[in-house]
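Appendix C reproduces, verbatim, an entry submitted by the partner laboratory led by Prof. M.T., so that reviewers can inspect both the input and the predicted structure.
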Amino acid sequence: MNLSNERKLQFTAIILAAFALIAAVAITLAIQPQETYAHEKALAFQSVEQIRYAKKTVWLLKTADQAADKTIQVKKSRKLQITGVSKNGWSQVTHQGKLYYVETRHLSKDNGYLVVIDAGHQKKGNSKTEPIGPGAKQKKAKVASGATGNHTRIPEYKLTLKMAKKLEKELKARGYQVKMVRTKHNVNMSNSQRAELANHAGADVFIRIHANSSASSSVSGALTISPTKNNKYCKKIYKKCNSLSKCVLAEFCKATGAKNRGVMYTDTMSGINWSKVPVTIMEMGFLSNKKEDKKMNKSAAYQKRMTKGMANGIDKYLKRD
């Protein structure tokens, strides 16, 4: 091969290599924007206004990336304000005026807790008897007729249902799932049946709403009722019942200003003895006391405070406060 031909071949090789390099660069430039666009499209957030709750303790991140810096820890069941969602499984969170990110799979439409509310009594009591607890020989009336306001003449069963419905609304607004034992007056449900309903539902909290009465019209104040530590029917739930009773009473009295009469411990309540889930009886006040009768039955503002107090107590018990 002469020198001229060798140079021609070298020149051709250089030209081909240059074309190959140009083609490679062109392909890279053509593909990269598409990949970047697809990634940006996946991270695009659609504006929304949602309330969601943490399924477990999670971290809010600075960017929508699992490797991003962790900034704020959010405990289970805490409420989050969602302002954007993406197709690749991320949610945009607005917290204290700043934007953060969390994987959508860690969020829920409810806070993960179920509360069963029992509006005490019913239109007509049932004097037929039932055992006070599983396997008990001692029996008592299936359900009493309840007290009546000395001043307003409004029966307890009407007040308790009104307050149960208000509490249901408040708890749902806080993300709770709520199940009502009764939603009308004309029912026939024994105390053991009410407890069994809460057991079957798997309630995290079973709150039984009542109002008190006394032979003395001067007696006033609120109390809750819990089983004793020696209750043979409630050994497994005693500590939780005690804690629930204390939390609900403390927050109720804080919200309403009612006299705190403390937690009453007894093992004679069928609705408690048949329970397998944390339970308390909330005695909101005395219908035999004119002032409390009027406030509980006639004051919308006081009813609102009672509702808030019970809901705050449940939050506190479940460590959501």
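The longest strand covers residues 45-54. Additional entries are available on request from the coordinating office.
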